Amino acid sequence: MALKDQLIRTFEMLGILLSCRRGKTASMIAASLNVSVRTVYRDIDTLISVGLPIYAEQRGQNRYWNIRQKDREKVANFLPPRLKSVYYDRLVTHAGTDHLQ
Question: Model pTM?
Fold first, then answer.
């Protein structure tokens, strides 16, 4: 896979994590990106290794990956301008609907 595709995928993964307040499982992320769960774990490791504050929360038998609320602005600033606008659009659209995600 080309480096460009991997880079685009990791930015898309950040967008997915930023768009959801309660986190996503690796399986959910994999389905959204049409990749394997193993690829998701590799990409998460890469993002963590460059200092992005991604964390896992165990709920029942599932592990949910997320970005803490206090770190969301910092991570959003890491995104290219087009993905930033998608993040802010979703933030406004879903304000007050955290219980739905």
Answer: 0.73
